[in-house]
Design a protein that fits this description.
The chain has 253 residues and is an alpha/beta fold. Helices cover 47% and strands 21% of the residues. The chain has an eight-stranded mixed beta barrel. The structure holds guanosine-5'-monophosphate (2 copies), manganese (II) ion and sodium ion.
Length: 253
């Protein structure tokens, strides 16, 4: 398979790159952090989005190795930005199911954090509900070991899976990310509006912070701010971009 040999070479030839999408307080102005998003800079195909190759990485068993590279590169970039005086508080990294349940993930993350020199609290790990619900006992054990290292934990695509509220309460998590499918219909769509309000209220009653993703309009931003959503992320505010562009956009302090 051409894709397989291409992917095996991509790592050693350093064809993977991270783009970073800014996240803001719901004033839409104050930068809080960035989400690291993997792309493949392919010699012929150009910039390939993760949906086109992450499933293949999973199947080939390469997703753990690439995932470790993503974690390392995101932490190194965070250290660079901080050295450049950029006011980025945290970098958020998506974990795949295989990566989450790979042995010694905590030890590898501890080593990555230490090598980068960033404060562990500057790293956030994004997990989906389905990753956590596969084996709840195992997930609890892994989450607790990760939390002890210092990173915060966010539940990505929240509302699309089926996490039990009972587990949500027990898991040591910090942030719910409202899935963009619910942000789509805001503010006019009555169902989406009710779901978004319910997620915000539930997050706050569980003492969790809540961020909405996929914000594409001013009206969506207004709704989310008025209803107490803590943070926002989406094309209306900023698209994912290379690290250097973020530096240009924000300027150095
Ligand atoms: O950037 P884009 O919208 O194309 O991302 C599509 C999907 O790929 C999203 O669900 C996102 O969470 C996932 N993704 C992006 N980068 C990474 C990564 O580094 N690791 C994993 N496991 N998933 C990622
Ligand atoms: O599953 P996850 O939340 O990690 O997916 C993140 C992906 O969502 C990113 O790759 C990014 O390209 C995409 N994304 C970010 N903001 C928006 C947006 O406002 N609209 C849409 N349609 N996609 C977005
Ligand atoms: Mn994500
Ligand atoms: Na998401």
């Amino acid at each position: 398979l051409e894709l397989e040999s291409d992917l095996r070479h991509a790592l050693e030839q350093q064809q993977f790159v991270l783009h970073y999408q800014p996240q803001f307080l719901s004033d839409g102005k104050t930068l809080t952090g960035v989400e690291a998003l993997l792309r493949w800079q392919h010699p012929d195909r150009g910039l390939v989005p993760p949906g086109d190759f992450i499933p293949a990485l999973e199947e080939l068993g390469l997703v753990v190795e690439v995932g470790d590279w993503v974690l390392g590169e995101a932490c190194r970039q965070m250290a660079r930005w901080q050295a450049q005086g950029l006011a980025v508080q945290k970098v958020s990294v998506n974990l795949s199911a295989r990566q989450f349940s790979s042995g010694r993930l905590g030890q590898r993350i501890a080593a990555i954090l230490q090598a980068s020199g960033i404060a562990p609290g500057c790293l956030e790990l994004e997990l989906t509900e389905s990753i956590l619900m596969q084996d709840v006992g195992e997930a609890m054990r892994i989450l607790e070991s990760l939390k002890r290292l210092g990173p915060s934990i966010a539940i990505d695509d929240f509302g699309t899976g089926y996490s039990s509220l009972n587990y949500l309460k027990q898991f040591p998590i910090d942030v719910l990310k409202i899935d963009r499918s619910f942000v789509d219909g805001l503010p006019a769509g009555e169902q989406d509006a009710q779901i978004a309000r319910a997620i915000i209220a539930m997050a706050h009653s569980l003492k969790l912070s809540v961020i909405a993703e996929g914000v594409e309009t001013q009206a969506q931003l207004d709704f989310l701010r008025e209803h107490g959503c803590d943070e926002v992320q989406g094309f209306y505010l900023a698209r994912p971009m290379p690290a250097e562009r973020l530096l240009e956009m924000l300027g150095s302090a």
